[in-house]
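Minutes, project check-in
Item: structure for the 492-residue chain
Input as provided by the requester:
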Amino acid sequence: MPKFFIKTYGCQMNERDSEQVAHSLIARGYERVAHESEADVVLLNTCSVRDMADQKALGKMGMLGRMAKERPHVVFGFLGCMAQARGAELLKNLPHVDLVVGTQKFHRVADYVEELVARKNNPISKNAETSTPNAQHRIDSRMDDLRFSIVDVAEEVGSQSTIRDQQLAPRQATAFVSIMQGCNMHCTFCIVPQTRGAERSRSIDEIVSEVRDRVSRGVKEITLLGQIVNLYGRHEFTKIDNKSPFVQLLEGVHEIDGLERLRFTSPHPIGFRDDLIDAIARLPKLAEHVHLPLQSGSNKILKAMHRAYTAEKYVDLVRRIRQARDGIAITTDIIVGFPGETEADYKQTRKLVEEIQFDNGFVFRYSPRRGTPAAQMPDQIDERTKEARNQDLLQIVNESNRRKLKRLVGRDVEVLCEGPSKTNPARMMGRTRTNKIVVFEGKEELIGEIVNVQVRQSNGFSLYGTPVRAKRSPDLPAFDRKLEACASLATF
């Protein structure tokens, strides 16, 4: 039985794509292994959002060159965003790479892998017919050895409908469901529209059916995934009763019996219209956590980024979200050192972060991406300044996070147990409805169960506690928001 190994770089969507590929290979009799040294097929699912992710994947594949010489039958491949962006170029300096598959062809990976495995085990002539005619096939002769590789980064109409169910682990508590592909926003720092293509959405019925199946198999929490998740379906589907397709989807998933929690990521501030804020107020299964990328607190920089909102509108949006649901957690993404960011611009970001007091946040140094407008902008910021701003802002975000966690010490919180703690397998871990990580004493029988845990201490990043008798958790006040509370909210 052939064995495969997949290493994933980047976001949750990449994790979801890797699971799709893994599921398709397992269905054909392949066995998943935990280390590349055990595998007959080694796949790296790549990310291109930041240069560091590119370099990590390239470095990893470079190191695998030695393994390729020792085990010539092994198939090596790049998948995902970097594969989409660079295509056949990846073969030039990495002669052992056999497969390059872009973001719209994950459903074809198993076919390509099977062809490559067969060819490596049964060498064929240069003129042999291929079983995968839609791909760009490359046959190169190197050092008198016949070399065959497959590159497929072409667009595929309807690729959003090829998203398949991922295989669920026993007693899996949470699952991701991709609801769309692509992005039309064209932020000047971002390569995603080039690597993921234009927005394409699955149907509500198809998504609800997938979620219902997962819940029937024990999943209690679903996270809906999309590049700009709250702009779902805006080109394919119509509003009904003044509700956007995304809100219609939330309502459809919310009605599924057995589902306990519903999340979505990552949204864009411009997608938070009145109907979505109303949904946050009235749908109790929606978890009390919104990830709301800020990127910058300077209007000048936001405009240069093509973010389509101002700092003032962002602050007002945070106010309305917090008004809609008591105790809701808000996390964010911020980029420092964007081209042209002066010290005054950075201080505006710093001030806004201090004002909002996020529950947590990811702070990134700007990384030029080849082919994006920002990479060609003047006034690029030096790395030392980027790093100083990054560390300064991280300190503010981390301190805010510590304060939020400390307030939960001594309280009971509702935790969905996901499994053993990664840092201490003798303990269990899970997350609160506000997405706080909680480590607690318990046995594996609790996996997939909702547990009330009394928080004993916090370490600044996680909470630690002890399970208590079941009762309604005061992690957040009881849900009793009324529809009228949002009637006067202004359109963002």
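Outcome recorded: Residues 472 and 478 are 9 Å apart (CA to CA).
No further action items on this chain.
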